[in-house]
From TrEMBL:
Segments forming domain Phage replisome organiser N-terminal: 11-127
Signal peptide residues on this chain, from the entry's feature table: none
InterPro entries the UniProt entry points to: Phage_rep_org__N (IPR010056)
Annotated source species: Selenomonas ruminantium subsp. lactilytica (strain NBRC 103574 / TAM6421)
Protein name: Phage replisome organiser N-terminal domain-containing protein
Region (Disordered): 135-160, 240-259
Skewed-composition ranges (Polar residues): 240-254
Length: 296
């Protein structure tokens, strides 16, 4: 094969989802990310015929590219080159080899090529077959008729049995907050009808506990938290429940130990003793025959 026939042409092949790749998406999200992505594509093009390796050939020496030289090679600002190289190494699109060469690991998957001889053969066959002279990887794809859009209304998804059970539970839970998270926790557990009823019963009992009734329900847990922590298993003291349901009247409170008296009786006795003390003071003043009269 002659030198002319052996000359090879290269091109960069990008898949249609190239810009959806996680690494490329992240790169574009950065400040000036579009410039970093363009710089990366220029590096890919410059390294096509060297299997993704970029290094300067100075006589018989291999010299790593300096930032300034890469900026000239790609027509990119030097500051942009410095930041882009750091980011590209961070996400694994560019590696620095031991000899200082830059290795673009994805280039081998993106390269297309053909020799001069292959180009002439393709052109000859194209003339015989109607004139398509594009390389195989760049030939136009025949137009495809777009699919007929289905105008039928989508059927509404019916709730499954666990979603229905959750709605029943939700009716009883007093704190209506974070319904989505609560529903996810409930459905994930896939409770039976029996367990659902146990949950509802537990909610009805705990509704009457001092903790849930305090400060207008501020201490009622979020429903998702209640479900995740299996709080239907909590035990609520009967004594606490009864004391909460039937609070003692002040007049029934007993003071003074074992043989004490009611509060009402205690206050009445205290008033009587105060009146008697005042009378004794009046009598003492009167017997001395002087002083101001103390009126009751």
């Amino acid at each position: 094969m002659s030198e002319r026939d052996g000359k090879r042409y290269y091109w960069l092949k990008l898949k249609e989802d190239f810009f959806d790749d996680d690494a490329i998406s992240w790169l574009e999200e950065q400040e000036n990310g579009k410039e970093y992505t363009l710089f990366y594509l220029k590096l890919c093009l410059k390294s096509l015929q060297y299997d993704g390796i970029l290094i300067r050939h100075v006589g018989k020496m291999l010299v790593p590219f300096e930032t300034k030289k890469l900026a000239e090679l790609t027509n990119t600002k030097e500051d942009t080159v410095m930041i882009a190289l750091t980011l590209l190494q961070k996400i694994g699109l560019v590696e620095v080899m031991e000899n200082g060469a830059l290795y673009l690991s994805q280039v081998n998957k993106m390269v297309g090529s053909e020799t001069n001889s292959a180009v002439r053969k393709r052109l000859y066959r194209a003339r015989l077959n109607g004139g398509n002279v594009l390389p195989p990887s760049r030939q136009e794809v025949p137009a495809i008729e777009p699919p007929v859009k289905d105008t039928a209304q989508p059927q509404e998804k019916k709730p499954n049995k666990f979603e229905e059970r959750f709605e029943e539970f939700w009716k009883h839970y007093p704190r209506k907050i974070g319904k989505g998270a609560a529903k996810k926790s409930f459905v994930k557990r896939k409770p039976s009808q029996e367990l659902t009823q146990r949950m509802i019963n537990a909610v009805e009992v705990q509704k009457k506990s001092p903790q849930w009734m305090r400060d207008k329900g501020q201490f009622i847990p979020h429903p998702s938290t209640w479900l995740n922590q299996e709080r239907w298993e909590d035990e609520v003291s009967n004594t606490v429940m009864e004391s909460n349901q039937k609070p003692a009247r002040p007049s029934q409170t007993v003071v003074g130990g074992k043989n004490g008296m009611s509060v009402d009786e205690y206050m009445r006795q205290r008033e009587i003793r105060a009146q008697e003390a005042l009378r004794r003071i009046e009598m003492a003043e009167a017997s001395r025959g002087g002083g101001n009269e103390i009126r009751w």
